[in-house]
Design a protein that fits this description.
Strand content: over 45%
Largest sheet: 8 strands, antiparallel
Number of strands: 58
Structural class: mainly beta
Shape: globular
Helix content: 10-25%
Number of helices: 10
Length: 825
């Protein structure tokens, strides 16, 4: 086993070092002889890495944090404990000099400390330290907890590692992990891969043009790499993301190499996500998705004609920005920042965490990204690096760093670093919403329900908007304009604030007494907002459904109303903005607080929009590698492009900024996960469920507890004694207005808008579902099988069965107005 491990490690190390060596040797030939080419931007990764063991297989590579992440890192992985709860771990020390090991077990909401234990016995070997965590018999079966492992190191102080743990009496997880690893391994052998065809759900409508994205619906050729001769390099890294009943979600990460000829080696990074369902007969593959991105090395094959070749990949991994003259182009490919001077034919690899010295385990960890803020005609680039810091002086921190690359000095200067306690995927969502460098020298960015303005001259900051709740704000795609409403009412406020993030100019949108305003989105840089009257609330079965709008207005950058949309004798609801189209539902008032939907409409705006994220990015179809992405140049590269790296990185002027808003969002949020990743969040449960639905995913609350799971649903369920079981749900209905926790331990969920088939999950978990009939009467759904649903009437005590199709149509006509409960303790 040791020889096999060392052999694989050696192969991976040789490939990466060879690639880097080729890059620098070729680079030196293209650079002036007096250019030293010494890359001193950051120290190598130095924090230890922790591996957990499940059923004899190393899984869940845990990366260390030098800050308290609380529960923010909880969804990174799940570790299933052995029957005796003794968890074996291995610590790859990397000269961190581990002096002590301690662990604590907490409830996922962090309220209860279950155990805190120091480990005094560990062994040291060639592969690092090994130890067993003797977790005590204080855990409930099939309930997730948070495990925090703390290492006392001589070089880095206390370093913490996070994973969820689960103690269960089945071995489904081990079987499904084995299935996933076997599946991925067989895709590299055409003959062995034939065994996998039974798991595919090939669909003729699926896009089979790119090897960068493969799904369960793709063709067999896509699954087997279109015949490319790829060699798996090193071990497949396994992360168990979820294990909930019979459902399991596993993420595999690995590298491959391809000999492209002429001494060129193409390197690829891939991740395969598996969602599986365990059965006594077999394992069912419910969903599969692969993403592959080619590692950009900047070799002479990368610059051809008027193209910078990114190769096989996903367009989401590529981003560009050019200077005002168009000569200087900055581009991000797979989390690495480069720039290119078209006139001088000179490329600079400005920023990368990548290194071959640790086999990519730490330096290539992909929980970070780079966002370009500005590019000058002289080649200077301002950019943010956000997420987990793999290397350098902030290694082990989650945060946001601002850098400037000075072209004349060929050096990077860090301007500030702001630590945050958020998961990378939530932070990325905020950075995608707003991160804009204004012409006024202010950096505006969103983080954890707040918007900050940072003066780059002094590094002082102000909180521009705080406690932002869902649908209470909107940002233009360019990041130049941002609008937000005052207060916490999701249906509007008396004032909308609108700010130009380039100049800092701010205006207020307000009007007549009794009007409420809400931002709906942007078309280009034109703000769309709706106007309602306070008394027009739409109330259905005692709960507010919406506040219909009587008018929509569009305001341009100069503050001029360029379009008004108002309907006679009707109102507007369910508004969404899609580029230059505004989709809405026209509704008619039928009573004091009641409305009926009339029809869907689309308003097409005249402004022609381009997707700035895709501007300058193209692709063409290759005969052997299919879709290949490239960055378009305006000038052709006619000679070997000179490639350099910054000579130094300066941290002397950097400041740590503690971003502190007054209060976070008070909304109860629901988080959608699928394909091993965060998909989005919403205060509306139905919206979060629909985000997860197609991915065979799950929905969690803020404590990372699963409240809905598409796969883990029993085929048949009948709740005994519905009056007794449903009592906790029924006693809160009179006061229930929105999803919330109650003191008796029940999480009441407003699941209005979900279909009957979707809410059957709660019944399968033993929680009845309340539903309203056509006269406003209350019913309880208490059971189902493959043909019928059981309906209980609390007033009469009678139960009856209704066919699933008939019941689905009936409740749909009632607006699918359901209420359920979860986590009754």
């Amino acid at each position: 086993m040791m020889i096999k491990f060392l052999k694989r490690t050696g192969i991976l190390l040789v490939v990466f070092i060879a690639a880097i060596a080729v890059y620098f040797i070729w680079n030196q030939k293209a650079t002036e002889k007096n250019d030293s080419m010494v890359y001193t931007s950051m120290d190598e990764a130095a924090l230890p890495v922790v591996y957990t063991s499940m059923s004899g297989r190393e899984t869940n590579i845990l990366h260390g944090y030098t800050q308290d992440m609380k529960q923010a890192a909880a969804r990174d992985s799940l570790t299933v404990l052995p029957e005796d709860r003794g968890l074996n771990i291995r610590i790859a020390d990397y000269d961190g000099a581990v002096r002590g090991i301690e662990y604590q077990v907490r409830s996922l909401d962090l309220e209860r400390l279950v155990e805190r234990t120091s480990v005094t016995d560990w062994a040291t070997g060639d592969n690092g330290l090994t130890a067993t965590l003797p977790i005590q018999n204080l855990l409930a079966r099939d309930k997730e907890y948070l495990l925090i492992i703390s290492l006392d190191t001589s070089q880095h102080g206390t370093v913490q590692y996070y994973t969820r743990i689960l103690w269960t009496d089945n071995d489904y997880a081990a079987e499904m992990v084995d299935f996933a690893v076997d599946f991925t391994t067989k895709t590299f052998d055409y003959n062995q891969a034939r065994e996998l065809t039974t798991y595919l759900e090939t669909n003729d409508t699926e896009d089979n043009t790119s090897l960068g994205h493969v799904t369960i619906h793709s063709s067999f050729s896509q699954l087997t790499w279109a015949g490319l001769d790829l060699e798996l390099v090193g071990d497949i890294r396994v992360t168990l993301k979820d294990m909930d009943g019979i459902m399991c979600n596993v993420l595999l990460e690995y590298e491959t190499v391809r000999d492209a000829g002429n001494g060129v080696k193409e390197l690829y990074e891939s991740e395969d996500s598996f969602t599986m369902k365990w059965d006594t007969q077999r394992i069912y593959l419910m969903n599969f998705e692969r993403h592959t991105n080619q590692v950009f090395t900047g070799n002479h094959e990368s610059f051809t004609g008027k193209r910078i070749m990114a190769g096989i990949g996903n367009v989401e991994a590529i981003n560009t920005m050019e200077s005002s003259s168009g000569n200087q182009i900055a581009y991000v490919i797979n989390r690495e920042l480069w720039s290119y001077d078209q006139e001088e034919e000179h490329a600079v690899m400005i920023f990368s965490f990548r290194s071959g010295k640790d086999n990519g385990i730490r330096s290539s960890y992909n929980q970070h990204n780079v966002k370009i803020l500005s590019v000058s005609d002289t080649g200077d680039v301002d950019f943010l690096v956000y997420g987990y810091m793999n290397r350098g002086i902030h290694e082990g921190s989650m945060g946001i760093a601002l850098y400037r690359y000075n072209s004349e000095e060929n050096a990077i200067e860090e301007r500030f670093f702001a630590p945050v306690t958020m998961s990378y995927e939530l932070l990325k969502e905020d950075m995608d919403r707003l991160a804009h460098l204004g012409t006024n020298g202010m950096l505006y960015m969103m983080a954890d329900h707040a918007v900050y303005g940072i003066d780059l001259n002094s590094n002082e900051y102000m909180v521009l908007a705080d406690s932002l709740s869902e649908k209470s704000f909107a940002a233009s795609d360019s990041g130049r304009r941002f609008a937000w409403q005052e207060g916490n009412d999701i249906y509007g406020s008396k004032v909308i604030h609108l700010m130009d993030m380039d100049t800092g100019a701010k205006r207020e949108i307000t009007g007549e007494e009794g009007n409420l305003y809400r931002p709906l989105g942007f078309v280009g840089n034109d703000l769309i907002y709706g106007i309602s009257q306070e008394g027009d609330r739409w109330i259905q079965n005692g709960r507010v459904k919406d506040l219909p709008m009587y008018r929509i207005e569009i305001m341009d950058s100069a503050g001029k109303i360029v379009k008004e949309y108002e309907l006679e004798d009707s109102y507007i609801a369910e508004v969404s903005v899609d580029e230059s189209r505004i989709h809405l539902t026209q509704i008619i008032k039928t009573g004091e607080h009641s409305y009926a939907s009339s029809k869907r409409q689309t308003i097409v705006c005249n402004e022609e929009l381009t997707d700035e994220d895709l501007e300058g990015i193209g692709w063409y179809a290759s005969e052997d590698r299919r879709k290949l992405y490239f960055i378009q140049l305006s000038q052709e590269a006619v000679r070997d492009v000179k490639v350099t790296v910054p000579k130094k990185a300066a941290y002397e002027a950097t400041e740590n900024i503690e971003l502190k808003s007054t209060i976070g969002s008070q909304e109860l949020m629901f988080y959608a996960y699928g394909n091993s990743h965060y998909l989005g969040s919403s205060a509306n449960f139905a919206d979060a469920l629909n985000m997860a639905y197609d991915s065979m995913g799950v929905v969690t609350n803020q404590n990372h507890e699963i409240v809905w799971n598409r796969v883990n649903r029993r085929p048949v369920k009948n709740i005994d004694k519905p009056a007794t079981t449903g009592a906790p749900l029924l006693r809160h209905l009179d006061e229930f207005e929105e999803s919330k926790w109650y003191n008796d331990g029940i999480l009441m969920l407003d699941v209005r808008g979900c279909t009957l088939g979707q809410v059957l999950y709660f019944i399968g978990q033993g929680c009845p579902v309340a539903a309203y009939n056509d006269d406003g009467g209350l019913l309880l759904l208490t059971g189902y099988d493959q043909y019928n649903v059981t309906i209980y009437n609390p007033e009469t005590g009678d139960s009856e069965k209704m066919g699933l199709n008939d019941a689905s149509a009936y409740f749909s006509s009632m607006g699918n107005d359901f209420i359920s409960g979860a986590f009754i303790e």
